[in-house]
Each structure stands twice: as C-alpha cells, then as structure tokens.
Design brief:
Blueprint (H helix, E strand, L loop, with lengths): L1 E5 L4 H12 L3 E8 L23 H14 L3 E5 L1 H17 L6 H20 L4 E3 L4 E6 L4 E6 L16 H5 L1 E2 L7 H10 L21 H11 L10 E5 L4 E5 L22 E6 L4 E5 L5 E12 L9 E6 L7 E8 L3 E11 L6 E6 L2 E8 L2
Parallel strand pairs: 1-2, 1-4, 2-3, 4-7, 8-11
Antiparallel strand pairs: 5-6, 6-17, 8-9, 10-11, 12-15, 12-17, 13-14, 13-16, 14-15, 16-17
Helix pairs in contact: 1-2, 1-6, 3-4
Length: 368
C-alpha cells in the first residue's frame, strides 16, 4: 500500500514508519508544525523559548532525519493557524470557564487526522499511519470499524482517539498496537535510527513547563485580551463560608490539593468552580465523590446511537481506571453516565471514554 505516516520526531512514530517500510509499503512522511515556540508565549522569565519534546523545531528536524534514514519523501505541514484556532483558543476559553480541558483529543481528531486524511487522499495514499498504541479492526458483519485498546495497557492511547469517525478509522493504521514500549525501542535500534534513545514527551506541546495559568496569562496579554482574565475572588467551603481569596479561577482544577493557599488541619481539595460567582469551592476528599455526570458531543464507534441504556466501563480522565456504569443516551448527542460506585474528581472539560472490555464503544466531553 501507499501510506501517509504522521511523524512527530519521536521514537513511536519513527518505529511505526520503520515497521511499515520493512513490510514493503510505499511511505510518505508528514510532520505538522503546530506551535511557534519563539512566539513569546511559551517562554521562561528571560524570554527564552521553553524546551519542548513535542512539536518543536528539533522534532521536525528529527522526523526529517528519520525519513532520510529510511528512504522516503517527507513534508512539513504548517498548521499553526489551524492549531491556534481549533486547539489553543478553546483550551484557553475552557480554563476561563472553570473547566480543565484535554487538548490532545481535539488535536488528534479535528486537526491531525483530518488534515492527514485530506493530504493522503490527494496523494493517492491508501492509509494514514500513526505511532499510537491502539488497534482498529473492520467488522464485516456489522460493516463498522472497531477501536480497541493497545495490548500494552500501560501505554494504551485509545482514550485520545474516541472522537475519530468511521471514515477516519477506516483509513487509520496503528502499527504499534500489539507492542510494548521496550519492543518499540528495539525496532528503532535495529533500524539504526538516530532517535532510538530519545526521551518521551509527556507535556502539552504548547505548555512545556506545565504552568497552564501562566500560559493563559501570557497568551491573553499577547492577544491584547487581558480583560478576559478572571479577577480576584473568594475561596469558600461547601457551606459557603469564605476561607480566603484567589487570584483567578483559571489557576484551579477540580481535585487539586496543592497550591490552594489555605492552612487547614485537614487536607482541602478543590470540589467545584463557580464561574458566575467567581468562586473556588473547597472541601474534604469525600466531597470530591460523585456518582453521575452529563457528557456532550458523544461519538458512538461500536454501533449507531443506542435507543436504550448501555452498560460499559467508563473513564473520566486518562489515568482513571475504567469503572462500571450505565450510559443513558439523551438528545443532541448527549448522554447521562451513572457509576455503580461514586468516583473522585469528575471534571468538566475532560474527555470520558466508554469501554466494553478492550473495545472503545464511544466517548464524549464531560460538561457537568
């Protein structure tokens, strides 16, 4: 086949390309230039770009080098404008609305796969391959693509792919789905790739230091939109008693314990964020527990939208253990999720993913 390979410059996507090349496929490599690290937003106190191990200019160089080592053509796509519109701006707005967003899901489905799909089709490519640890299979009887967790559950990335459409899944290849991380590194080493020992990327690419509030401050200042920044407000307990002041709700997330700025005999956690009253509500760990929530933008993968409640195991964040729940479909691509047992820190803005065993049957965005 002729295959378009998404190349990040990291070990995973490079090993995926090496595997496909060894199988005899014709490859075309693409790297996406998403965020300008020298724009003056992702910088340290001296104004120098923060080091990043994802989507940086060094990564573009590494991806090009791998393509040269394996002997296939390589192109760089400048998607900075699309990335800012579809990923960065919604990320900022979500935090200002008291949510905790996960931009990697939207980046995968709405930007990376969508853009590569179009380019792959224009170049006559049959498939689009990435280095995700996941599996996709065609079910002939149901005439549907089915998405599964990667065999290495510690590295499984199916959580980030729940928003992919049937059309996108039909053209997707995940060569690493059956492999462990050590096996992937062995592929890179045996292929004599220069990036074989490169460290993994963990952070959000445009916030490499993990300081989300600081990034939002700098971004809005650069955009001359500092009036959007939340002002000082109250920190209250669940009974409404004022305990302290905060410097902006975008500095807090549900479940947060450190950095609240309150001395207390018992640990305090952020329980909720009241945008209308500009309040951060704190309480005990037990008060973090909830048994239900509403999801919006629900995408069903394993079947068409059901007409009756569905039993599944549900995750409410990437590292959350899938937990038994009942999912009841609602109008406008929404669903009500009720857990068998209350769960900790269910957070608006995060993705929720529905599993039956190792299969991803769907997912959505937590709204309340």
């Amino acid at each position: 086949m002729k295959i378009a390979v998404a190349m990040s410059g990291g070990v995973d996507s490079s090993a995926a390309a090496a595997l496909l090349k060894a199988e005899g496929h014709e490859l075309v490599g693409f790297t996406m230039q998403l965020w300008n690290q020298r724009r003056g937003i992702s910088v340290d106190e001296n104004g120098e770009p923060l080091p990043s191990r994802c989507c940086s200019l060094d990564d573009v160089y590494d991806a090009r080098r791998v393509a040269e080592e394996l002997g296939f053509p390589f192109y760089v796509l400048n998607l900075e404008r699309d990335f800012e519109r579809d990923v960065v701006q919604p990320f900022v707005t979500s935090y200002l609305n008291g949510e905790t967003p996960i931009p990697c899901v939207a980046c995968n489905s709405r930007l990376k796969f969508a853009s590569l799909d179009r380019l792959a089709a224009s170049l006559g490519c049959d498939k689009v391959a990435t280095g995700h640890f996941a599996l996709v299979e065609y079910d002939a009887e149901a005439n549907r693509q089915r998405l599964f967790r990667g065999r290495n559950l510690q590295k499984d990335q199916s959580y980030f792919l729940w928003e992919l459409t049937q059309a996108q899944l039909s053209r997707s290849l995940f060569p690493l789905g059956e492999m462990s991380k050590p096996e992937v590194r062995d592929v890179a080493r045996s292929s004599k790739l220069a990036i074989a020992e490169k460290a993994e990327s963990q952070e959000i690419c445009f916030v490499p230091d993990g300081d989300y509030a600081g990034f939002i401050d700098r971004y809005l200042e650069a955009e001359d939109e500092t009036e959007r920044l939340p002002g000082e407000g109250e920190i209250v307990d669940t009974s409404g008693r004022v305990l302290s002041k905060h410097g902006g709700i975008h500095r807090y997330t549900i479940g947060q314990r450190r950095g609240i700025g309150i001395s207390s005999e018992r640990p305090l956690y952020v329980i909720s964020i009241n945008v209308e009253k500009n309040r951060v509500v704190v309480g005990s760990q037990d008060e973090l527990l909830r048994e239900d929530f509403t999801a919006a933008g629900v995408n069903w993968i394993a079947f068409d939208e059901p007409t009756a409640p569905v039993r599944a195991e549900v995750r409410v964040r990437y590292r959350h253990l899938p937990t038994p729940a009942t999912i009841t479909p609602q109008e406008n691509n929404r669903a009500r999720v009720v857990f068998d047992e209350p769960q900790r820190a269910i957070t608006p803005g995060q993705a929720t993913v529905f599993y039956q065993g190792d299969e991803v049957i769907g997912g959505g965005w937590i709204v309340k």
